[in-house]
Amino acid sequence: MKLSSVLSVLLSFAIVSQAVPMDLSKRRFGVEHTPEADATFQDVKDLAQGSDKEAQAGNLSGAMVRALLAKAPACDQQDRADDVIDLGRQFGGDKEQQFIKVAQTYRQLERNTPNAGQASELCTKPPRNKELDGLTQAQDPTGKAKDPADTGKAKDPADTGKGKDKAKDPADTCTCKAKDPVDTGKAKDPTNTGDNPANTGDNTAETNPVGGVKMPKIQKQNGEFVVNGNSFKDVDAAHGRQCDVQHNLCFNKFNAGDKSFSGADCDNQTNVCKSGPPVFA
């Protein structure tokens, strides 16, 4: 009788397991505890250690974790990044700058979503601190193409014939711009020497931006290239950042309801931007 009971239980478990398949491979959870994310939580606590702000930093660190969860409101991550900078302001000096860098890194972390490939909702309100201007969370790389489809608005411009016009503008100009540096062989020289004015205006993503959304310009400070408060040793990395920031701002405007262009136009423009020269202030 005992053996029969055991076999019955095992058989029942097997039937239930087959009846309720576990599709865990398609979930997009756990990004709130990547090494990069955990480092920002710990940095906030470490920077406040030994001060009267330790408890405040500990509470904020926990709130930062919760803001990356799938059910968190769209602007929670940005609000917590603002809180990190606000805390840094109370310290001032070098520590303030360290808090700002932590906040900028944290603001660009990927958030959890219920499904792999699903884009997390973007925050449409501006941040309290200018150091976070143009920064948004990273998206699941496999879901980037789904952003316009999720809003249901990507097809509207195509129906009116406007979407095609917008989509062609970057492509038409991109072909010309891509050949200019190759033909002359001089487009990269100003970048290498820091001759900023020669590059300004050569990038179509700057002179004719989709939706009128401008990219942040690169500033050269103390031998480094700075974009929106982020410093880079290499101009190519700074150029990539200015294109990515413009892409995020473009999508923000699209998701806010601007139907004069599509999400695909934002993607196309990023390719145009990165194939062109960097744009300096």
TrEMBL record:
Q: Which keywords label this protein?
A: Signal
Which residue intervals make up region (Disordered)?
Answer: 110-212
What residue spans carry the Polar residues bias annotation?
190-207
Q: Which domain of life is it from?
A: Eukaryota
Q: Does the keyword Signal apply?
A: yes
**Which residue windows does the record flag with biased composition (Basic and acidic residues)?**
143-189
Signal peptide range: 1-19
Please give the name of this protein: Late protein
According to its UniProt entry, this protein's organism is: Anthurium amnicola
The organism's taxonomy opens as: Eukaryota, Viridiplantae, Streptophyta, Embryophyta, Tracheophyta
Give the gene that encodes this protein.
Answer: L100_2
